[in-house]
Design goal:
Distance between the termini of chain A: 79 Å
Strand content of chain A: 15-25%
CATH topology of the largest domain in chain A: Rossmann fold
Radius of gyration of chain A: 23 Å
Order of helices and strands of chain A: HEHEHEHEEHEHEHEHEHEHHHEEEE
Structural class of chain B: mainly alpha
Number of domains of chain A: 2
Largest interface: A-B, 27 and 27 residues
Number of helices of chain A: 12
Distance between the termini of chain B: 30 Å
Helix content of chain A: 40-55%
Shape of chain A: globular
Largest sheet of chain B: 2 strands, antiparallel
Strand order of the largest sheet of chain B: 1-4
Order of helices and strands of chain B: HHHHHHEEEHHHHEHHHH
Radius of gyration of chain B: 20 Å
CATH architecture of the largest domain in chain A: 3-Layer(aba) Sandwich
Oligomer: heterodimer
Strand order of the largest sheet of chain A: 2-1-3-4-5
Number of domains of chain B: 1
Helix content of chain B: over 70%
Strand content of chain B: under 5%
Number of strands of chain A: 14
């Protein structure tokens, strides 16, 4: 009897040491799960949890389970600093994905640069990767590329006079700068430049002013719900010139809120929403369809572009882990030379000069038809 | 008597000095640095609210002004830290003086609204002046604090800097409170009319304490900016002012240790509760609610009441 117990415990011990031999690969994630940016941070966290589950269910990474340590920044910079410090020094993660917002990313950059841990941000601002920081990458598309896409479309439609509207937020200000900077390149004149506060509930004044100009199109740049007001007010005032929205329009809820005022609004966005209308030859189609289906089944809610940013960030890190193991330096080098990585936000090709990895081809020009997002003709 | 009065601070100083020797982890040091920074800001606010009885919902503005002043001067104009610091203090004090003269004529809710507006104005200015402050995307690349060739470039060194500043300011504040001006402040708190009748120049005193507390907030902001090496307008928003206020209310208004305790609790609690994930906010909220409901004088007030109760009981038993 004693022998059996001894043998059994020896077996257990052996087994447990085998299990322990496959140490989990640790990746840190910092998202604004609560707080003012929760609409962005929550789908990001959900996506990461879902993806980690899928990977572990399929046997992990080279036999090692993936452990994603998710921390909530509340969108607060001081909190982000602490969370990133914790991930680096206490959890000893190999790489960090996030933060959600541009400000929190900027606050985290000095820490990861000093600790030499690769960080793949899910925030959009150009400042994050321009100038290039050795340890920092990002997955969302650049504002400049969205602007280029809009101007190309305007040229195609033979429109040369634009009225610009933007919110006084980080996103709105950055977009407005790019719109003004790139206009001459496409032979476009900006005939009106109006701004509004992110919490404003009426844009009639700005739109009336635009109505008085000879603008041929309105370009609106904002990420908060104020952008729905622009569409409603435009319809009320009977303005019929085309309206372009930014890629911040990438949530079907905004179109639904505006009802039929959202019809035929044009906006550049990742292909996620137009997956049903893509040809089968599209490289991204399988990735997009799988992500969308899994997400909507698991969380019973619509996908958003933000979750896609997190999907791309974690998938990149997982690929790197699979190729080079949990070595921060090698992970960074691997991501920097990564080419043609098919993600949700686009097809990424990073280089030593480009830590964004996407170009304007990652955007499609989309529109709203009968309350649904479709590719614009 | 003097030793007895300074004993808590001396013990605290010794504890603060040896604590990091056992805690080399930058995460824990980071938490302690933030507690120190928030303690400095709440100390000033406590002086204003707890002792002089004047409310301010705009202290985040001074915190941000301090951080931006030295941040801009050192990062963009290559000014040395010490001259930048002096400039930051002068600028904040001057702005606080002008605002103080205008706002401190108001009382109660009106004063709260006026200071709230000041915070909002600074917030909007920092956002709008894109070319100067970097706008909503913030100001990056603030260098480490360097004094006389010594650079506070690690969490370890920064910890000692922050807590040394804290202790110096604590001694200064404690001396103010126990001086003639301190008694005048408390008199002002109880009744402005009575204070004026006693020959106290009420307006002057209020403006003085407002400026002083703004400078404390600015100093905290300076330390924050140089420790994170990045600052954005977010640090001047209303939520931060409310956070400072909550720290004082929870820790104990009108007690210098209260601000420290509140700062420590509000910084540590979310970190410790993060293990509860989705329930974190519920637990955090409940704890704050319980403190405010059952300890209206804050934690320090509660401790004092408890201490007095025990002493009374011991005495009663001794007599009985």
């Amino acid at each position: 009897m004693k022998k059996i117990v001894f043998a059994a415990s020896l077996c257990l011990l052996l087994c447990s040491s085998i299990v322990r031999a496959a140490e989990p690969y640790k990746v840190g994630a910092v998202f604004a799960v609560t707080g003012p940016a929760a609409l962005l941070g929550e789908p990001e966290r959900n996506t990461v949890m879902m993806l980690a589950e899928q990977i572990n269910a399929a046997g992990g990474i080279n036999g090692h389970p993936l452990e994603v340590i998710i921390e909530d920044t509340e969108g607060d910079e001081a909190k982000t600093v602490l969370k990133v410090k914790k991930l680096i020094s206490s959890d000893k993660v190999a790489a960090i994905i996030g933060p959600t917002r541009s400000g929190t990313t900027m606050a985290a950059i000095p820490l990861v640069e000093k600790a030499q841990i690769p960080m793949i941000s899910c925030a959009a601002a150009e400042d994050i990767v321009k100038p290039v920081k050795k340890w920092v990458f990002k997955t969302p598309q650049s504002d400049a590329d969205a602007v280029r896409r809009i101007y190309e479309k305007m040229k195609e439609m033979k429109l040369t006079k634009a009225a610009v509207m933007s919110g006084t937020t980080g996103f709105g200000t950055a977009g407005r700068d790019q719109l003004k900077k790139l206009a001459p390149e496409y032979g476009i004149t900006i005939v009106a430049d109006e701004t509004y506060g992110p919490k404003d509930t009426d844009m009639t004044a700005q739109l009336t002013k635009i109505k008085g100009t000879d603008a041929q199109a309105i370009i609106n740049w904002e990420i908060v719900p104020a952008q729905t007001t622009v569409m409603k007010n435009k319809k009320q005032l009977g303005i019929t010139i085309p309206l372009f929205q930014s890629h911040g329009f990438g949530n079907i809820k905004y179109a639904q809120d505006a009802g039929d005022a959202a019809e035929s609004v044009l906006f550049p966005c990742g292909l996620l929403f137009a997956v049903d209308t893509l040809p089968d030859s599209n490289l991204q189609k399988p990735v997009l369809a799988a992500y969308r289906k899994a997400y909507e089944e698991k969380f019973k809610t619509d996908v958003s572009a933000f979750g896609g940013y997190a999907w791309d960030a974690l998938s990149l890190v997982v690929e790197a882990l699979r190729a080079v193991g949990p070595d921060s330096v090698k992970i960074r080098d691997y991501i920097e030379q990564k080419k043609n990585f098919v993600g949700v936000s686009g097809i990424f090709s990073y280089s030593a000069e480009d830590h964004c990895g996407l170009n304007k081809m990652s955007f499609a020009m989309l529109t709203i038809k009968d309350g649904k997002i479709v590719v614009a003709k | 008597m003097a030793i007895k009065r300074h004993l808590p601070l001396m013990l605290f100083g010794c504890a603060a000095a040896v604590l990091p020797l056992g805690l080399k982890d930058p995460y824990y040091l980071g938490i302690l640095v933030f507690i120190g920074i928030f303690s400095i800001a709440t100390m000033g606010l406590n002086l204003l609210m707890g002792y002089a009885g004047q409310i301010s919902l705009g202290h985040a503005a001074f915190y941000a002004l301090g951080a931006y002043a030295t941040g801009l001067l050192t990062a963009k104009y290559n000014v040395h830290f010490l001259p930048a610091l002096i400039a930051a203090i002068i600028v904040t004090a001057a702005i606080a003086y002008v605002i103080g003269i205008a706002c401190l004529r108001l009382k109660g809710h009106y004063l709260a609204v006026a200071t709230l507006a000041v915070g909002e104005i600074v917030f909007i200015c920092l956002n709008a002046a894109v070319g100067f402050t970097g706008g909503p995307s913030g100001l990056a690349g603030i260098p480490s604090i360097e004094i006389g060739g010594f650079s506070f470039d690690s969490d370890f060194k920064f910890y000692y800097l922050v807590w040394a500043v804290f202790i110096l300011l604590f001694i200064l504040t404690a001396n103010i409170i126990n001086s003639r001006s301190g008694r005048a402040l408390r008199c002002l708190h109880s009744s402005e009319i009575a204070a004026a009748a006693m020959g106290i120049n009420v307006t002057k005193l209020k403006v003085q304490v407002f400026v002083l507390s703004a400078v404390y907030a600015a100093l905290a902001g300076v330390l924050y900016g140089h420790s994170v090496t990045f600052i954005s307008p977010q640090s001047s928003d209303l939520m931060f002012s409310v956070k400072l206020l909550t720290m004082i209310v929870v820790g104990g208004m009108g007690n210098l240790w209260g601000g420290v305790l509140g700062a420590a609790l509000l910084t540590l609690l979310p970190e410790m509760l993060s293990a509860f994930h989705d329930y974190e906010l519920i637990i955090y909220g409940s704890i704050l609610l319980v403190i405010v409901m059952f300890l209206p004088d804050g934690l320090m007030g509660g401790f004092e009441a408890l201490g007095n109760k025990i002493i009374r009981k011991v005495r009663a038993r001794g007599r009985g």
